[in-house]
Specification:
single chain; about 210 residues; alpha+beta; Lipocalin; five-stranded antiparallel β-sheet; four-stranded antiparallel β-sheet; about 15% helix; elongated; disordered N terminus
């Protein structure tokens, strides 16, 4: 049975909600409060205490936040000037409302008569325009990340748990970088993943080791 999400893991996931601003472009986002902000606020109020003493969010809170995430949409639009190139990014992260994923009750830690949990998949749209040419227009779904999902349970039950534009690296690789977490809903089981896209629209999926 899975334990409630620990504080450090929640903070890692929430790091996705703070886009880095590039000096050459402005990031505009319509994302609302992050999925676990209330839980973090209550825990931070306890002070700098050991993890074992920190108050963990109740299952009802985690479930409520999970259900609320279905109606939240994150959009980012930014213009980046890199030398002679004018790069425009349109990014959208959203719920598919497909009710196609059933998480087995063994992953549900509610404590009282756990049941299988029917939930939705998520996706992200990435459009990149280089000057006047659209070099990438793609919807990324869970299946695009199968190479980084080495665990069988994650392949079956994980969703794209939040996603964000991390920034554009103009000095070294000339790439847009996006990050997300592939996690099983209502649990702390998951792995980080990344998408790197160059200014010609060529992309690659990376795991946490490749990005270091």
């Amino acid at each position: 049975m899975q334990k409630p999400l620990p504080l450090l893991f929640i903070i890692f996931l929430l790091s996705c909600n703070n886009p880095h601003h590039n000096s050459s472009g402005k990031v505009i986002t319509t994302s609302k409060d992050s999925l676990k902000q209330k839980s973090i606020d209550s825990q931070m109020a306890l002070g700098n205490r050991p993890d074992s003493e920190q108050q963990e969010p109740a299952f009802s809170e985690v479930l409520k936040d999970q259900l609320a995430s279905y109606n939240k949409i994150k959009r980012i639009d930014t213009l980046i000037i890199a030398g002679k190139d004018s790069l425009r990014l349109h990014f959208k992260y959203y719920c598919l409302h497909d009710s196609s994923l059933i998480v087995p009750k063994k992953y549900i830690w509610s404590g009282k008569n756990p049941k299988d949990f029917t939930t939705n998949n998520f996706a992200m749209d990435i459009i990149i325009v280089n000057n006047k040419d659209t070099v990438l227009n793609k919807t990324f779904r869970k299946n695009d990340f199968m190479d980084v999902l080495t665990d069988g349970s994650l392949k079956k039950y994980a969703v794209i748990f939040d996603a964000n534009f991390e920034g554009y690296n103009s000095k070294i690789k000339g790439e847009f970088l996006f990050d997300c977490s592939l996690s099983i809903p209502l649990t702390d089981v998951g792995v980080p993943a990344y998408i790197a896209v160059d200014k010609k629209g060529k992309y690659k999926i990376l795991d946490e080791y490749a990005i270091k």
